[in-house]
Design a protein that fits this description.
Helix content is 35%, strand content 21%. By secondary structure, it is α/β, with parallel strands linked by helices.
Length: 326
């Protein structure tokens, strides 16, 4: 068993390196991914080692980047596309939802588009407008796309491997404020299926569900609640489309309570779908309504105010207390 401690950023870099080394059809494309190594240095050193034909610096044109990736996928390549920041994806939204997501069904299964679109997302880095958004629900709503987000270095490493190997288009959301969080990565064996949730902490009184950047907050909330004698189970969703509802149901049937946490606005967020489905599935097991914690239904604020906007420990613990009070 080969274990190595690395940051999420390093894990993604190593995973992409392995993908390039394993399959000559894997290409990396995006703005500044080559010589610069990416704004967050996720692709650092890859162009130097694999060449400009495999790690391609593109013009500043997201629609063109994704459109080119679709064409390359039609020719048998496996493009991994980087969108530099979450808010920059929208010029490519048409290509993603009307072409990339629909081609497989349009061709009655004869055409596959194995494209991975990497999107650093979420706040917490003190950035300016359009650099801190969480648009995952927009893509999870689109049939034909799979949407995932790792919360730790091990998942970052293996989920990227699985995404690149998938024949389906995958939107890979990377929690940018967690890039430098470190963890153990076992590089010999895949820990589990790409779209299966994992139990990050066991508990009996309430289930906290989160993904990406919010898993760390959920774990901190569970640890704080433990000091008050409350046993909180934390479920790392890992995938927003498809969602592992069976894992959530299993946990809720044990605990009787559910709080869903995400950084995106609560209004029409991923938590709404989870709340509705689990209410249907677990109605007779629930001891309290499913509660949601997330961002406000407002444009992402200037950096000075983002600590007030982002759901943190206090807001999660408040929801835990409200649920346990029923």
């Amino acid at each position: 068993m080969a274990m190595e401690k690395m940051s999420i950023a390093k894990a993604l870099n190593e995973s992409l390196r392995k993908a390039l080394d394993t399959d000559p059809k894997v290409l990396i494309m995006g703005e500044d991914v080559g010589k610069l190594g990416g704004v967050f240095r996720i692709t650092d050193g890859l162009q130097k080692d694999f060449g400009e034909d495999r790690v391609i610096d593109t013009p500043l044109a997201e629609s063109g980047i994704v459109g080119t990736a679709i064409g390359l996928a039609l020719r048998g390549y496996r493009p991994v596309v980087e969108i530099q920041f979450d808010g920059f994806v929208f010029p490519a939204y048409d290509q993603i939802v009307t072409q990339l997501a629909k081609m497989h069904a349009r061709a009655l299964g004869k055409i596959k588009l194995p494209v991975v679109i990497r999107i650093p997302y979420g706040g917490g880095i003190g950035a300016v407008e359009h650099h801190s958004e969480s648009p995952e629900a927009l893509f999870a709503h689109v049939a034909g796309l799979k949407v995932v987000s790792p919360s730790n270095a091990s998942d970052a490493y293996w989920m990227m491997q699985q995404a690149v190997q998938s024949d389906d288009p995958i939107i890979f959301f990377e929690p940018k404020r967690r890039y430098w969080d470190k963890g153990e990565v076992e590089t010999d064996s895949i820990p589990g299926p790409l779209h299966k949730a994992s139990v990050a902490r066991t508990g009996t009184d309430l289930t906290l569900v989160g993904y990406g950047p919010m898993v760390k907050v959920c774990l901190e909330a569970a640890a704080a609640a433990q000091e008050e004698g409350k046993s909180i189970e934390v479920l790392d969703l890992r995938s927003m489309s498809p969602i592992d509802f069976d894992a959530i149901q299993s946990s809720v049937e044990k605990t009787g309570r559910l709080v869903v946490v995400h950084e995106a606005p609560v209004f029409y967020g991923s938590g709404a779908e989870i709340a509705a489905r689990i209410t249907e599935r677990c109605f007779y097991h629930l001891e309290a309504p499913v509660l949601r914690v997330g961002g406000y239904h407002a444009p992402y604020p200037p950096a000075r105010l983002e600590d007030e906007y982002l759901p943190g420990l206090d807001r999660v613990l408040d929801a835990v207390d409200r649920s346990l009070a029923y």
